[in-house]
Amino acid sequence: MARLRDPDGGCPWDLEQDFASIAPYTIEEAYEVADAIERDSMDELRDELGDLLLQVVFHSRMAEEAGHFAFADVVAAISDKMLRRHPHVFGDAEVSGSAAQTVNWEALKAAERAAKADGAPAGTLDGIPAGLPAMMRALKLQKRAARVGFDWPSLAPVWDKLDEEVAELRQAAAGPPTADGPAPARRDRIEDELGDVLFVMVNLARHWDIDPDAALRRTNAKFERRFRRVEALLQAEGRTPQDADLAEMDRLWDQAKSEE
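and the corresponding structure tokens:
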């Protein structure tokens, strides 16, 4: 990476990059790692982990050039963090199981956040990156709030809240359609209420200990698989989806579903 970033003979593209321009690639590579895992492709996982590691090296090299830190500092920092957060492995502390370790882990993280606050009161939601995907951030916000008791004790009130939010979404969406869609003010309200529904759905997933993002990825894959089968069935007849109406595609969809 140092060679690629060398102004004298390096790669023009690599030389043009900065932290902000590389960040989207870092996120993309992390998702590709997750995709390889979901498809249980170890060969691809090996390659994708290499791509993700390259992102760490790239950011570290740019930081070193700016005099901030180097790759070795990144490795040392995470090593120190693992030692610090596992006193039951690298020290004399004892834990009764994984649940107790999770409690200890979060307590140590809270202490680290408080230390970074430099004396200022640490907020419960401090340290949750604003740039996370919205669903992932919703889950983290809810988990953090739940640790201080801001949580429903069972699923029943979550279901009630979901019913309430869906009713409010229906109310916001009610009204005569227009050629250009809802008026801006009504559209904003619909978006707001839709966000509330999604937030409660994340809460529901959290109470079941299900990753909502993983659940949606699974549904995306299922939709893609079935729709591709619909296309294949139509292509066998020399047709495309544009040649079929919704009723026919629904019938083929049911056939694709029954074949699984």
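(Above: one complete record from the training split.) Residues 42-65 form the longest helix (24 residues).
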